Amino acid sequence: MAFFGWDFQSFGWRKLALEQSAKLPQWTIYSLPDGLWSFSYVCLLLCLWKHEIGTAALFWILLAPFLAILSEFGQLFHIVPGTFDLVDILLYLTGSILPFLIFRNNSNRNIYENHF
pLDDT tens, 6-35? Predict the structure, then answer.
């Protein structure tokens, strides 16, 4: 990027973001993205299967969150590089369960499907 004269380190918005991020709780910076990733993945697959959850659909929907949680435990036992964090696991679980709760009744599902 320096080739084009773009110095992201000195951009005003980057400095502002770094200053503001220091005020946020640590879990919002390090663990919340994991939960949001899990949430968006499950939402996407629920929409792809049109909320008709059979055994095959459930397998694919829960595969990625299961592997993510498994990798956290792999970090605990030093099988996977990284630092084990219980908050990561809690947010993976929350992000995986929340879409089922949000779209469990037909009215929420219809609102969502009519917009997309």
Answer: 666 666 777 787 788 888 899 999 999 999
Residue 3 lies in a domain: no
What is the rounded distance in angstroms from the CA atom of residue 8 to the CA atom of residue 13? 9
Which tens digits make up the pLDDT trace of 90-104? 999 999 999 999 988
Largest Cα–Cα distance in the chain?
A: 53
Residue 5 placed within a domain: no
Strand ranges in the chain using DSSP code E only, listed in sequence order: none
d(CA 70, CA 39): 17
Q: Is residue 81 part of a domain?
A: yes
